[in-house]
Amino acid sequence: MPVTDISHDIEALTLTITAEFAAPVQRIWDIYADPRQLEKVWGPKEYPATVVDHDLTPGGHVTYYMTSPEGERHYGYWKVLSVEEPSSFSYEDGFAHEDFTPNTELPISTCVSTLRATDGGTQAVYVTSYKSREELQTVLDMGVEEGSRSAIDQIDDLVA
Q1: Separation CA 103–CA 98 (nearest Å)
Q2: Torsions phi, psi for 79 (to 5 deg)
Q3: Cα angle: 18, vertex 19, 20; to 5 degrees
Q4: More confident position, 32 or 119
Q5: The overall pTM is greater than 0.90
Q6: Is the pLDDT of residue 147 over 80?
Q7: In 10 A of CB 82, how many CB atoms?
Q8: Phi/psi of residue 109, nearest 5 degrees
Q9: φ and ψ of 65, to 5 deg
């Protein structure tokens, strides 16, 4: 299982996920840089993702939806803030309406993804920051820890 640690800090308003992959940094980077590969790991297995738009450059956008087992679509977006290929990227992550406009009734977070070479492959650290305790608690109650673990753990099969 790639995810080695998930922690949340209510005081710092962060959720941090650490994962280890038996693949080089560039291979893990390529998953996020390629919309077809990203679709295979962005949502949990039970909620597969479909990437509609994908521009992983500063100022770019990634739009997607995840489909529930019942066929219901859940829309989201990234607004890309920074990119340092192949070591890191940051983005605003939010829920969206069907037309991909931000759904401001749900939390919007800032995510920083960092990839670092290790002896056996790559360590990824994903830090997500929220504006308030209530927003962090909302996504925790929605199952973000379990969903993220399920999604990230799919990367092993993709790089095998």
Answers
A1: 10
A2: -110, 110
A3: 135
A4: 32
A5: yes
A6: yes
A7: 12
A8: -120, 165
A9: -140, 150
Task: Note the pLDDT of residue 160.
Answer: 86
107 phi, psi to nearest 5 deg: -60, 145
| Structure tokens given for 7 | 């922690």
For 88-141, the pLDDT digits (tens) are 999 999 999 999 999 999 999 999 999 999 998 999 999 999 999 999 999 999
CA atoms of 41 and 159, how far apart (whole Å): 11
Task: Supply the mean pLDDT for the chain.
Answer: 95
pLDDT at 130: 97
- What are the DSSP E strand ranges found in 22-98? 49-54, 61-67, 73-84, 88-96
Residue 16: count of CB within 10 angstroms of its CB:
16
Euclidean distance between CA atoms 158 and 49, whole angstroms: 15
Burial of 40 (0-12, 13-18, 19+ CB in 10 A): middle
Cα 85 to Cα 56: distance, rounded to the nearest angstrom = 10
CB atoms under 10 Å from CB of 148, counted, come to 19
Q: Which domains does the chain have, with CATH numbers?
A: 3-143 (3.30.530.20)
